[in-house]
């Protein structure tokens, strides 16, 4: 085994996710705290109780502070989405041409610089929380978390086969869940034992380790890429028309139709996930009155539960019982709907606990849809299509991260949980779209078809001719055949019936 096979992308991703999850609830608390005493000019000692104690003071202050915090979060979300969305549009093409590694390094370094700027800002205790939007600029210029996920997914697809891809992606999901669980478990305790500065210094250290690891230990996953290139070459390779052409071009066996529907489902998922932008504030300001420590402990338990949920779906339902991908997506959507209703009608903690249990399978629908997409298109197209989907999803996320805070602020004094029913509606439409796709055979990528679509008719070889010359074996097992002295991977062009 090559030395680089021992070093996987899961390790730096775990470090980065740990850093992000460690800081996420603390950053919300910091925004609430500084909004309270810097912007709204309330007593600093009273503001310090927000998120820590439940008393008459916090019950009055929390609803007054949260609308401004939502405005800051909206601004951050727009900044972190708009330019990265444009960057992601070209990232697939760039990484297909120049390799995954340069852009992977850029994403990690951007996140590292983001942490460094935040550490500087947090040192000045009387600065408005609006200054933290400045910390987003380095990460924004390198594509942000969306770009990192595109490169990560493309890298994993490069280094796996269809047979072991689901296991590798599940392992990545489990690693993410473990890092999230541990980070949530310790974040509030570290914060109350130390300070905001310590939390951000820990994040800076973890991001430094992740960046160093990627730079020295993660090799290029593409077998053929340009070894050197200039900024001018990168800019000259920008071709929006080419990216869109690869996505909307005619495909055999209903593949284009299927692809369009998958994109629509991603859009609906992005709209539904906007609820997460206000959910922590909802737990603090509603009848539930959760403290920061309680929120992080419960979220830690949920992350551990998500690990077992993903393992159960992968190994029991998918591998042992052989339940097809799209049926597992349906299962995930149903559990999301249950969670939406429980959170929307919550009158005590048990509703929220039950909703969290229902969402143990929350991450699985999008994982399965990525698996379905990988079966449909060639590896050469995967980066471009993932990039376009990521751009569309980013645009939708930006809109949803504006929509949900507006709904939340408008109903904070009347029906604070209304946003859960907005999410419920989007998930219902998404579920109906998936049910519709169940009636259509899943098209598989076939290299024979791809080669013939681009060859003169005199050079084309039919599937029957290929079979007659024994140059490929029966589908759906993956084989190779030699056409014009090029080794091409073959999968069946016959749809898989769900």
UniProtKB/TrEMBL annotation:
Residues 1-443 form the Major facilitator superfamily (MFS) profile domain. The chain crosses the membrane at residues 12-33, 103-124, 130-154, 166-192, 198-218, 258-283, 295-317, 351-373, 385-404, 416-438. One of its GO terms (cellular component) is membrane. The keyword Zinc does not apply. InterPro entries: MFS (IPR011701), MFS_dom (IPR020846), MFS_trans_sf (IPR036259), Sugar_transporter_CS (IPR005829). Pfam families: MFS_1. It is a multi-pass membrane protein. GO terms for molecular function: transmembrane transporter activity. The keyword Transmembrane helix applies. Keywords: Membrane, Transmembrane, Transmembrane helix. It comes from the Eukaryota. It is found in: Membrane. PANTHER family: GH23453P-RELATED, ZGC:174356. This is Major facilitator superfamily (MFS) profile domain-containing protein. The lineage of its organism: Eukaryota, Metazoa, Ecdysozoa, Arthropoda, Hexapoda.
